[in-house]
Recover the amino acids of this structure.
């Protein structure tokens, strides 16, 4: 936009300068020639009284004095064929002037001016002077240089003004673009200043209105999710009462633990829905959380004859994720293993430190692998599930500054590698 505006202004100013400067340059050339011609004519006419007097001695002296003072050369041609003053040929213009006609004619190297003088007899003499091309164009180059400098100055000033104007407009447009990028990144407090021309102020107002509307809609969505999640507490309460009514046994303990885990997940959903995405994600000891969740799921694995292999780093292993989100993440990974692999399928859980801070959690199984290559995308499953579990894992990892990847083991099983970030204090 800036370059186009400069090209447009430069083109318009250049056309205007051509329309005005070229005629002025031609006019300066014409005025210089007319001035020199007028000066030479006045010089020649100064001898008319002397020539008209008809005294050859006085005429010769007057012509000699006029030429000795410098200026345009003067020559007086007499009717008897003689000539006085500066040497000059008897040209066609001179011969025409003997008929009683004064005139100006172009000649080689300049302009010839002849004045017919009537003495005792018509056409008694002709006064001739010559103006060279240098005299006809004296001062023209300087005038053209001044016009060129003025034109260049006008062009430069117009380009500078156009550039300043373009910069101000581009700054406003770039500012609104930056606001849109901040909104896209989740900063719903970003607002565009209502500055500049009316059109840009309207665009800024529309962008700010959109930001406010997005914020309202997200708030409504969070509250709706929180309300729906809160409604799950009633059936969970019933399940808890039913679990507490069971006779004491290992199975009743597992049911109670499952109800507790469900309550924690519902509470996390409510808190997550009402929390701004710019809230601090928190941190926890991944070694303790992962070890606790693997131990919890190991009891169900024992019932299904699933071999479980653990390679867990010792605590502390701090990650930039809260305890509840990390618990939900580990549960989602292990639940996928139990839900999508046959019983007696072995799986391995590995937790190692991450270079630069954080941890790397790997869950691998000997099952049939992932049926869909894009299972990390929200809603993508390929099996009879919601497709949200692995998306929760991915978003939890990215919120901490990490990532999640899916691979297939050499035996065809599924492997999920999740990196949790954490900035080590310096």
């Amino acid at each position: 936009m800036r370059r186009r505006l400069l090209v447009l202004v430069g083109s318009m100013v250049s056309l205007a300068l051509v329309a005005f400067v070229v005629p002025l340059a031609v006019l300066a050339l014409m005025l210089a020639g007319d001035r020199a011609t007028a000066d030479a004519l006045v010089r020649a006419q100064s001898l008319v009284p002397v020539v008209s007097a008809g005294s050859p001695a006085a005429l010769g002296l007057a012509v000699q004095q006029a030429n000795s003072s410098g200026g345009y050369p003067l020559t007086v041609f007499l009717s008897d064929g003689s000539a006085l003053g500066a040497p000059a040929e008897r040209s066609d213009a001179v011969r025409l002037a003997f008929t009683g006609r004064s005139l100006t004619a172009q000649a080689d190297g300049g302009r010839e001016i002849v004045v017919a003088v009537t003495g005792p007899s018509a056409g008694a003499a002709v006064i001739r002077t010559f103006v060279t091309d240098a005299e006809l164009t004296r001062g023209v180059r300087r005038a053209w240089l001044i016009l060129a400098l003025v034109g260049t100055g006008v062009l430069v000033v117009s380009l500078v003004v156009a550039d300043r104007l373009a910069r101000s407009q581009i700054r406003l447009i770039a500012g609104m673009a930056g606001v849109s990028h901040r909104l896209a990144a989740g900063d719903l407090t970003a607002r565009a200043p209502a500055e500049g021309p009316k059109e840009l102020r309207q665009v800024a107002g529309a962008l700010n209105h959109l930001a406010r509307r997005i914020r309202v809609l997200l708030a409504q969505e969070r509250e709706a999710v929180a309300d729906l999640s809160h409604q799950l507490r009633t059936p969970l309460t019933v399940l808890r009462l039913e679990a507490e009514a069971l006779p004491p046994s290992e199975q009743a303990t597992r049911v109670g633990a499952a109800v507790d885990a469900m309550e924690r997940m519902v509470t996390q959903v409510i808190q997550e829905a009402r929390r701004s995405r710019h809230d601090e994600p928190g941190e926890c000891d991944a070694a303790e959380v992962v070890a606790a969740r693997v131990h919890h799921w190991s009891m169900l694995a024992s019932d299904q004859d699933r071999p479980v292999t653990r390679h867990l780093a010792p605590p502390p292993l701090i990650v930039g994720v809260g305890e509840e989100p990390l618990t939900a993440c580990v549960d989602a990974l292990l639940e996928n293993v139990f839900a999508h692999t046959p019983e007696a399928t072995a799986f391995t859980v590995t937790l190692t430190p991450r270079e630069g801070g954080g941890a790397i959690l790997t869950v691998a199984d000997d099952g049939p692998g992932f049926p869909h290559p894009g299972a990390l995308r929200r809603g993508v499953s390929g099996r009879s599930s919601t497709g949200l579990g692995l998306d929760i894992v991915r978003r939890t990892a990215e919120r901490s500054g990490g990532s999640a990847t899916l691979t297939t083991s050499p035996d065809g099983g599924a492997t999920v590698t999740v990196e949790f970030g954490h900035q080590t204090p310096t």
